[in-house]
Amino acid sequence: MIIILKENADAAQFDALKDWLTKQNVTLHISEGIQQTIIGLIGDTSHIDLDIIKQFDIVDDVKRIQEPFKNANRKFHPLDTVVQVGSGGVKVGGGGFAVIAGPCSVESEEQIIGIAEAVKKSGANMLRGGAFKPRTSPYSFQGLRAEGLKLLLKAKKATGLPIVTELMDLSQLDLFADVDVIQIGARNMQNFELLKQIGKCDKPILLKRGLANTYQELLMSAEYIMASGNQNVILCERGIRTFETYTRNTLDISAIPALKTLSHLPVIIDPSHAAGIARFVAPLSLAAAAAGADGIIVEVHNNPSCALCDGAQSITPPVFDDLMEKIRHILPFRCQIKA
Ligand code: PEP
Ligand code: MN
Question: Are 176 and 29 in a shared domain?
Fold first, then answer.
């Protein structure tokens, strides 16, 4: 249930309303905007009489909401959430376009620093790189693990780019102290214990949609993180399983307007894992920018044919540079999806 207050609500009446609501055994989630204050009721509201709430003078409207996600719901929080990354002013959401670029996996110091410098020069504002890799085969390269994180931190120091990397298991969390954005990969989207625990830290979380999960399931996973206290969630559509086999996955462009209608959280697109084919990465990225995404996360490799993971979908630094130029042309015309 949500309660919308009249503008400039009287403080004493606001306190009286809060007191009454608290006695109904629900938790209050208060969102104070510049013009409007909204109270979200979390918990079982089936016994609460809407008409009694409407009798409080300061109440403008009361609505029951159907969706089981509350913290992530646009109805509770009409304004876009803007996630602040690191201390250098990088933001995701609220009108900008964030570009996260880098290799699928960190392979060596020379590789990660070289790619970080190149993508920064082209305008990327964050560096990606997997240290702990979720691979379908246990015989495939599993990432450089702790050593990979050290190399990412060296690249961050060398370029100033905030770093985004995947956490697969809570046992790795201590190593992530200097990571700027923790990625929860598609395969872990419904690892609820992991979600609850990362909800207790205050770092931004990049939450990828599972291979065959609905928007509501993705938002419920975001809800796990938010209900544990961390509101800094960035949603990522990375392609879903369909009957089509030509591409690695199918990029669901509808996820952009749909998720941004349902939720105030920023939505970014991963064209690389969606396509699985390097030459499709630019068209999908441009579609994402035009459709109103808050950014993209793109795999860039200096030598894709020798990459230890996902070379076929990795674009080179010159192709990335060209893509950035095209994105800049599209951004002024893109759709803005608001409440
Ligand atoms: C990745 O970004 O490196 C990755 C493994 O992505 P996903 O979880 O979307 O497959
Ligand atoms: Mn990859």
Answer: no
